[in-house]
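Hi R.,

Here's the chain you asked about this morning:
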Amino acid sequence: MAVYDVRSISQVGTSEPFELQIARGQIPGHSFVHKIGEVPAMSQGQTGTVWDVNDTDYPWSAFDTAGTLTVDRASASDADKDVIISGLDADYNPLTETVTLTDATGNATTNSFKRVFEISMNGTSVNVGNVTIKKGATTVGLILAGIGQSLMGIYTIPAGFTGYITQGVMTVQEGADATGKFYVRQFGDRFRIGHCFEVTGGGEYHYAFTVPYRAPEKTDIDVRSTVRSNNARVTAAFDIILIKEQGPL
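And here is the predicted structure, written out as tokens:
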């Protein structure tokens, strides 16, 4: 096997950008999260999280306690396909589990989840019908038909890490107006507005934090929008640098 001398130096002798070094895994304890969300059709005058369910705030209260999840499929064509669920366990540590869609309803996880922030179909085929993830009777994740993954504008900082939010983006369907609010909730606190923005007549809003927004471990992040004119599709994205906290020296 060939051995390469990989250094963080370009051909002209200067250091590579810090962000590129993180992406290449060259800085221990550092990682990168890019979260994307989309709400298909937010109704005029309604407010909700930018995720796969229209006109609905994300149901954080469903995770007041950790618990197992169930996965339902709407189409028989999705029988025996695998779904990958990513989130956090009861101690806020990263947790990923694969569930096979053997039955139409009630395919259960083995592990207990405290948070869920990403679901995707495993393999080369996408889902023919909707795939719904529930905790009890509450929908906590949804993969819309033909998409192959959830689009959830939410995230929770894992235990033992601090998140540094570097930028956020929001888009609104052409011809519509919307406002957005970037909510953050530190552990034991309530949701507070960390940033607000608006898009008029469609288009894009982009904000780069000159000084990254610091989010301690277990902080919940939720991007919500209110459509002021015309029903509209809304998207959101934000980037986080995760840095592992150091223990006592």
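One quick note: The chain is about 0% helix and 50% strand.

Cheers,
M.
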